[in-house]
Design a protein that fits this description.
114 residues; mainly alpha; 73% helix; 0% strand
């Protein structure tokens, strides 16, 4: 086995491990992103996913983690247009999360100095 094949096998194993750890399908990740941008709470998103798909393996914790925008979907999981849509959503969700994090930290600082 040459070096390139070893690297490719490693990459493939890593992707599978991350997909399994994510606990949600690529389409569920997109759905979570869409609902976060609409202002839904993570528990409502989780409950809706479970009600609509009893076979879903997503957990509340998975939804919370994905809702930060820090969740990777691989190109192989979606067609090109859908992957581009996912990428745009992910960027918006991540920016929203960072903005909310700053607001939260500012509120904590305001409380400490009051």
């Amino acid at each position: 086995m040459n070096h390139d094949k070893i690297i490719e096998a490693k990459k493939k194993r890593r992707e599978e491990k991350k997909k399994n750890r994510r606990g949600a399908t690529a389409e569920e990740v997109i759905y979570i992103f869409e609902k976060i941008l609409e202002g839904w709470k993570t528990i409502k998103i989780y409950n809706t996913i479970i009600q609509n798909n009893k076979d879903s393996e997503v957990s509340k914790k998975n939804v919370e983690n994905i809702s930060t925008g820090n969740s990777k979907v691989y190109e192989k999981e979606l067609d090109i247009e859908r992957f581009q849509y996912y990428t745009e959503l992910r960027k918006k969700v991540y920016e929203l999360h960072q903005k909310n994090k700053i607001i939260h930290l500012n509120n904590i600082n305001d409380m400490n100095y009051s």
